[in-house]
Target: Serine acetyltransferase
Amino acid sequence: MLNKFRKDIERYKAYSGKNSLVLLFTQQGLWALCVYRINNSIYSSSLPGIFKKILLFFGLLWQKWIEIICGISIPYSARIGEGFYIGHFGNIIINSDVEIGRNCNISQGVTIGVSGRGEKRGVPSIGDHVYMGANAVIAGKIKVGDNSVIAANSLVVSDVDPGCTYLGVPAVKINNNNSEAYI
Model:
């Protein structure tokens, strides 16, 4: 848990050039990530059932407080890799079953959730080094490839090729530009 959170802080430091203490006091995204990392480590632990439930109850209250003050909802059961960067706080919703890879960026207004019918119903699996632009919606049982870009205001409901940029409603591949410039 500490190692992953340390990697999160390193990403924030690389963007801002500020020290860790300043970032911890001023970045709502880090507040949400801190609560998520702690609660996720409890959820993933091998603690006896009753202790885990008690700790998760208080963790859930803490998570709800962060949702209220920051507008960022990251359930403890989501699987998020190290180096996660929340560019701007507000209106970020992540489904509890989502898997997000390492070194991904998420902007304000992004929703990553459940959608679809029958066999296509489910949640996205997002690869490493993915940039998700402001107000993007990524929904359904889809795979978002490594190093891809989801442009602002896009609705992604089908698989995204690695190393490509997708834009639109519904999102379509517009070029082969990868996320390197964004991440």
Remarks:
- The chain has two domains: 1-71, 91-183.
- The first helix runs from residue 2 to 16.
- The two ends are 22 Å apart (CA to CA).
- The CA atoms of residues 46 and 52 lie 8 Å apart.
